[in-house]
Amino acid sequence: MTQAPRKSPPRVTLEDVARRAQTSTITVSRALRRPGMVSEKLRERIAKAVTELGYVPDPAASALASRRSNVIGVLIPSVTNSVFAEVLSGLYDTIAGKPFNAQLGNTRYAPETEDELIRVFLSQRPAGLVVTGIDQSPVSRALLAAADCPVVQIMELGETPTDMMVGFSHRDAARTATDHLIERGYKFPAFIGARMDPRSERRLQGFRDAIAAADIAEGDRVVTTPTPSSVTLGETLLAELLAQAPETDAILCNNDDLALGVQFAAHRRGIAIGPELGLCGFNDIEVMEAAHPSITSVRTFRREMGRLAIDMLMARIEGKDVDENVRDLGYALMPRDSTMRE
Amino acid sequence: MTQAPRKSPPRVTLEDVARRAQTSTITVSRALRRPGMVSEKLRERIAKAVTELGYVPDPAASALASRRSNVIGVLIPSVTNSVFAEVLSGLYDTIAGKPFNAQLGNTRYAPETEDELIRVFLSQRPAGLVVTGIDQSPVSRALLAAADCPVVQIMELGETPTDMMVGFSHRDAARTATDHLIERGYKFPAFIGARMDPRSERRLQGFRDAIAAADIAEGDRVVTTPTPSSVTLGETLLAELLAQAPETDAILCNNDDLALGVQFAAHRRGIAIGPELGLCGFNDIEVMEAAHPSITSVRTFRREMGRLAIDMLMARIEGKDVDENVRDLGYALMPRDSTMRE
DNA sequence: CCGCCGAATGACAGCGCTATCATTAGTTGA
DNA sequence: TCAACTAATGATAGCGCTGTCATTCGGCGG
C-alpha cells in the first residue's frame, strides 16, 4: 500500500481576511478578540470575510506573539479511574465552547512524572493549570509558585494553596462514614484501602479519628495495599481482613470498587451484607445505588469539581478578582441497605 | 484576597543555549532534533548548556516555524465511558516520553461537535489525528481526507478507511456472543441496548445475524433506547423486556453496565442468573469476572487499541511505510457463570 | 600540491500572529 | 473657534523557532 503524499491545504491567514474586508490585519485580530474595540460596520465586514474564507486562527502564532497559549493543562494521576474521569467530564463540558483547550497529563501517581509534566506544560505558557491534590513535590511546588498563570488544585483542601483550590476534606468524609457505621451499631469497624495515595491516607486518618472518639480499639482491622484498586482486589482484601480480624462486623472501603468486590465476595461466602457485615464505599459511583443490596457510600461531587476548577480559572483569566480562592464542595453520606443491621 | 501579580520567569531561548555552547541557534536546534547531524563534541557541549540553563523548547515557536505542531488530536464521544477511558489510557501510556502531546476532544456523540473539533485540531497543524468510529459526517470526512497528517480511526473496522484503522468487528463479536447463548441451549435470546450509537447498532445487527441463522424468531425481544447507558438503566430495560417478551431466557447486553444492572435486578426479582436467565455483556470490564455469579462477556482490547493507534501514527510520522493500514484486533468470548444453565 | 567533495556549521528570512505606539477622525467645552 | 480630548484604525517590530540556502573545512585522488 503506497502512502499518498498529502498536500497541505493553503492556509487562510489574517492577512487574507484583512484584504477581503479592506482593512488591516491588526484590526481583524482585534475584531476577533475584543469586538468592542472595533466599529460595528467594520466588525460585520470582517465577520463576513471570516465566514467566506473559512478563517481559523493559528494558535501557535497567537501563542508566540502574545506569549500566552490557549492551553489549560490538567494533571491527573490516572485516566482510567472513574473518579478522575468524571472530574474530567465536568471540566471538558465547561471548557467546551470557550476559546481554550484542555491538555491532559497523566502523572500515574509518580511525582517525577508530575514535575516533568508541569515543566512541559509551563513551556507552553498555559492559560491555566489544574493539578490534582495538595502533595506536590518541592520541585513542582516551586514551579507552580513561579508560574505566571492561575493554578487550581483539585480533589482536596489544604492550608496552603499554591493559588486556588477546590475540593473537600477526605478526612472529615471518612470520619462521617465511620461515625455512621458506629451509630448503626457495628462494634468492630474495619478499613480496607488500595492504592494508598495521600487522599486515601487521609481517609484512613478520618477512620481512626472516628474509632478513637468512640473509644473503639483498632485491633488488626486496617488492611491496606499500594496495589491499584479494583473490584477483584476487594475480594482479596476481605479475605485478608477476615483472616486477621475475624471479629470485624463492618468495613469502610477506601473506594467503591473495593466495596463492590467485598459485596460479591461476601455473597460467595454466604455473609449477609448489612445484617452480618456493614459495608460502606467512598465516592458513590452510580453502581452503589443500583447494587443489590444497595451499598452505602459517601458521595463526592466530582463533575462539579471539574466545572468549578474551570470557572475559577476563567474568572482569573478574565481578570476578575476571585473572592474565594478555596472552595469546599463537601460530601454527602448516602445510607443504604449495606449498613442496615436488619 | 488580593491576587498577587505573577511575574513571568525569563524564558531561556535557543539563543541563550547557543551563546553558552559557543555555537549558533540553528545548530542547537539541529542537535536537539537530529543529533546525527551534529558532531559529537558539539553535541555534548550543547547538551551541557541545555541542562545548565534548563532550556525547554517553545512548542508554539516550533509549530509556527515548521508548520507542524506536536499535537496529536484525539476525538472520543465520551470521557466518562470506561471503554474510552481505557483506550485513552493505552494511548497516553504509549505517547508518554515521546515528543508529542495528546489533545483530547469530547464529541459527546454529536457530529456537529465532531466537525468543529476536527476543524480546531486541524488549525493546529497536528502531527496526527485519532478519531472514533467510521461514521463521520460528510464534512468531517472531507476535512480528514484533506488533512495533511496521518489519521487513525479506532474502535471499528470498515471498508473505506480515511487513512488507517484499528478496531474489530462489533457485528461479528455480537454474533459470536449470541451463538454462544444459543449453543448453551437458551431458546429465546433477547437484546437490550442503551445509547444506540453506530457500534451498538452493529452489535444488534450481529445479534440478528445469529438468531436468523439459528432460525429463531426475534419476537419482541429487542429493547433499545438512545438514553446513555448505566447500571440502573439495565434494571429498567430488563423490566421492559420481560413485560413485552416474558418467554425471554437469555439476554445479550449492549455493554457491561447494562449486564450488571440486569444481574442486580434479577437478584431482586429472584431470577437465577445462569439457570433461569442467561446473561452476556460486552467489553468485559473488570467487574464481570469478579461479579457473583460471574458474568459472561465479550472481551475487547481497548488499551491495545490506544497503543496501536499511537504506534501507527508514529510509524507514519517517522516516514516508515505502514504495511498494514487496517488492523483487526479481534475479540474474545469469555464464558462464565451467567451463561451456565445449571 | 591543487581542486573537488561531503560533512559540519552558520546566516538569514519568515512562519502568522499581537503588543506597542502612532495616526486619524470625531467630539467636546470654554 | 480651537486646543484637548476620546474612539477607531493602522504601521511596525518582533515572539522563538526552523527551512533553505551558503559557507567552511578536512580529506583525498590525480
Automatic annotation (TrEMBL), chains A, B:
Query: Which keywords does this chain's UniProt record carry?
Result: DNA-binding, Transcription, Transcription regulation
InterPro entries for this protein: HTH_LacI, LacI/GalR-like_sensor, Lambda_DNA-bd_dom_sf, Peripla_BP_I
Q: Where is the HTH lacI-type domain?
A: 12-66
Q: Which PANTHER family match?
A: HTH-TYPE TRANSCRIPTIONAL REGULATOR GNTR, LACI-RELATED TRANSCRIPTIONAL REPRESSOR
Q: What species is given as this protein's source?
A: Roseivivax halotolerans
Transmembrane annotation, as ranges: none
In terms of Pfam families, this protein maps to: LacI, Peripla_BP_3
Alphabetized GO MF terms = DNA-binding transcription factor activity; transcription cis-regulatory region binding
**Protein known as:** LacI family transcriptional regulator, gluconate utilization system Gnt-I transcriptional repressor
Quote the CDD domains the UniProt record gives.
HTH_LacI (cd01392), PBP1_GntR (cd01575)
- Keyword flag Transcription regulation: yes
